[in-house]
Amino acid sequence: MSFRQFAFNNVKRNSRAYFAYFISSAFMVMIFFTYAVFIYHPRMEQIPIGKLARAGMQAAEYVILLFAFFFIFYSISMFLKVRNMELGILFILGATPAQVNRLIFFENMLIGFASILTGIAGGLLLSKLFLLFSTKMTEMKELPFYWPTKALLLTVASFSTLFICISLFTLVFVQKIKVFELLQGNKAPKKEPRASVFMSFTGTVMLAVGLVSLRMETLTPSKIFVAAAAGIAGTYLFYSQFSVYMVRLLKRSRKALWRGTNLLWISEIAYKIKDNARILFMITVVTSIACMSSSLVLAMAQANYQSYINNPFALNYYSLQNEYSEGDLKEINRHLNAAGVTYNQIKVTTQRIKVKTSVHSVDQNKDSIVEVIAASNINELSAFMNILPNKRLDNEGSFLIYNSNGSALADKRPPYAITLESGQTLSINDIYKNEAIASLGFRDTNLLVVSRDEYEELKDKRRESIIYVYYVPEWNDQSPKSESPEALISIDLEKWFQERIGQHQTANFFSTRMGSYLNAERGTSLFNFIGIFIALIFSISSASFLYFKLHTELLADSKMVLTLSKIGLSTAEMKTSATLQIGLLFFVPIVISTIQTLVVLRPILETMYINTLYTPVLIASSLFLGVQSVFFLIVRSRYLRRLDKAMV
């Protein structure tokens, strides 16, 4: 038997252990390859969002490679740990370290190249479907199939280098282990883990630092990095230190400990805490990243749709230079009349004024500016925006209108006074909440309604803004679709206006409700498309991590079950105990990652003026929970079947 045949037979004999690793690696190769097929498509340059799509795919390629490095490194390390005794026997039989290293290298490369070939084959078979799916999701023109030479070369080169480097790197660990330790394998006795008060305190501090970094007034990339580093470190210490205290609390309660099979699974967990902490930590980090990414994309998509629904005006024209306004407005009206559209044009005049005394003590920066508008102008808008239901404003007192992105004035109730920068004092008699004011361009400021006389008194041409909004009744009863009459007319108007800007015929600004919605939807659909496959990789890899972990403990657990069955352990009790332990490994990370996602995304979404948090997070977490439940049932079934065979 040649050395290569020996390596092949080893892989064949351990196929059950290598299967999950092989499938996960092949799936990563397939997704990497299909993304590369998309990136190097010859027609990508001709597509409007082709550059953005290519940049997003390239970022995804880096994420896949980085994750693949850690996944393959961990997997190979786990396999070597399981085979410690086998390697020790080879050394005793006379194998040299160089021969053992060559054997391990051959085995790793055999699985690696098989994964590359399988992944590329799967990618080639599914590439046409992938291109069709990608263009549908991102609303691009259909991309025809082509022979992806560049994608093939990139995939083979990237993953071959990855497998070779990791295979060589892991050999260092084998050389450092003594033969006696190898022969002991996984039989080395484990001591009951102890928790360190200092490390537990450090973990608490780390989690607190991460939370405080996110809750500071201004969120910056450096603060996000500090929060991520502190959160990851705190998560590891939570599992490695606090879990010890939790198990001790369970063991102290004799009433709970001696009930049913609790003694069995609690005692087992107590001695597996150190190993479980590592795997739970890795899965939590992976799941949290996937859950945060998915929740962010869902929140953006939901906010985009809500923004469209809350906006009653189909078109907005911002008059920055009056000399162009008359000609621009005539042309816009001509387009709408030619299309047979019934519309109302409303002129909105406001002034942006600084407030000397903040109207909101919690956030001095957000409320330092207000948009001032005359009551007569608001009365005109009220019929279309439903700003003040069943009420028209008179000329006495001032009113403040805000939305979710502005100030909720939770700590102040009217009446109260504010002082403007000019020194003038205004009395706020009432406050109203209305999401539609964002459609006027006031996303993060308050709308201060004053009488016409007060408005004229404050009037300053240098800070005055004029907006013309168009209300189209027939378009407000339709859901946003790219082929709707509103979309076709809006896109046509936007193209026309861009041409006027290019020809220096206007210096003003024009936007459409549908155009803004479709542009945002294309971006979120692209992230959705990329995120779906990244999330799938993370989910499958997480299940593989757990499968490896349980496989490494299978021999020891089988022997323990055999011994316990001789003294009366039933099959039902064994299954209950094992199911609880496997369930903790699969589902605890989902709970922790959901909490982390809620904590991390809240300040990030606030900076993006997105107020939807719980719905997207719960949807994303539920999806991951569903996927993990499927993997849990598969792994549990296989694991219990093996343990059942070990019983008397």
Largest sheet: 9 strands, mixed
Number of strands: 9
Strand order of the largest sheet: 5-6-4-7-3-2-8-1-9
What is the gyration radius calculated from CA atoms?
A: 32 Å
Content-based structural category: alpha+beta
Treating each run of at least 4 consecutive H or I residues as one helix, how many helices? 18
Query: Which geometry do the CA atoms define?
Result: elongated
The level of helicity is 55-70%
Which stretches are poorly predicted, pLDDT < 50 over at least 5 residues? 358-367
Span between termini: 38 Å
Name the beta content range.
5-15%
The string of secondary-structure elements, in order, is: HHHHHHHHHHHEHEEHEEEEHEHEHHH
Mean pLDDT rating = 80
Top keywords for this entry?
alpha+beta, 18 helices, 67% helix, elongated, transmembrane, membrane, transport, ABC3_permease_C
Write the layout of secondary structure elements.
Layout lengths: L2 H11 L1 H25 L10 H33 L1 H9 L4 H42 L10 H28 L2 H6 L12 H19 L5 H32 L1 H4 L4 H49 L4 E5 L2 H17 L5 E11 L14 E6 H11 L12 E5 L13 E4 L5 E9 L12 E5 L1 H7 L5 E8 L13 H18 L6 E4 H54 L4 H37 L6 H33 L2
Parallel strand pairs: 3-7, 4-6
Antiparallel strand pairs: 1-8, 1-9, 2-3, 2-8, 4-7, 5-6
Helix pairs in contact: 1-5, 2-3, 2-5, 2-6, 2-16, 3-6, 3-16, 5-6, 8-9, 9-11, 11-16, 11-17, 11-18, 15-16, 16-17, 16-18, 17-18
